[in-house]
Amino acid sequence: MGKKVLLFADVGIDDTIALIYASLSKEVDIVGIVADYGNVPRKMGLRNITYLTRLFPFSPDTKVILGAEKPMTGENPVFYPEIHGEQGLGYLTPPEDLSPNGYSENFYEVVSIINKYAGELTIVNTGRLTSLASMYILFNDLMDQVNEVYVMGGAFWVPGNVTAVSEANFNGDPIAAKIVFRYAKNLTIIPLNVTEHAIVTPQMVDYIQSKGKAKIIKPLLDFYYQFYKRRNPSIVGSPVHDALTLIAAINNSMFSFGTYPVYMDINSGVTKGQSIADLRPSPSMTNSERRHRIAFSFDYPLFYHDFMSIMTGETV
Prior knowledge:
Helices cover about 35% and strands about 20% of the residues. By secondary structure, the chain is of the alpha/beta class. The chain is globular. About 45% of the residues are buried.
């Protein structure tokens, strides 16, 4: 069996690519999915998870749990149909009669999963950090039993994708991000400056689609690519931010890391959600501050071979 992973996700296109990858990989065992708001409203995310778990070979024991519906800032979340499509799945529209079933409205189920896999569970958070932060507030001692936490978020030394300096997951709930930075003891951050280089080209998409295992990848990433192409005409494909974060959790050797104190701007305006790593050799730290591991770069050829092999079922 693969690594036990509890995924917190706001299931739009890039989260869907991560889930497809996970369903096809022997290195990953998705034991639970927390359906959050973010790319799409929580209700839509839950429906998309239902669609994917019926379409791909997930374990029938995989628990689906309702997570947060709004951020800790108290603001109404902003959604991005121009990026992820009206249904959160690009050009796809799930069946109209698709109704979620087998999910839990009891967030306490997350506690059961952590207890069940104490010491071996990996949490991967690919959306807003609201639900994950809630776990640190409500069950801080229990979170010590989580082996490791991987978060897709932040923009260090590169432009943001929501404001000039902030990335969407941190910008969407900077209070939650700050809580996670404060309490997490085993946190790895996979930021935008790494994930934006995890490019899947249209040629890669066409080849994967021709093999039939990933099934719906083309209408997802064709839509995603069109958005990125409008924003940046020089881009050659779609960045799969969340899939790269999941890959990091099972293949550290693909990445280079540094470990630093990380600070979060929770103010309004252009700096809302800005993530700041203190690179000074001897940063001034209080007893309440922690150092967190940040990915600086990754080996694209290794990513290419891994991603293509998993998504096609062939050795590439």
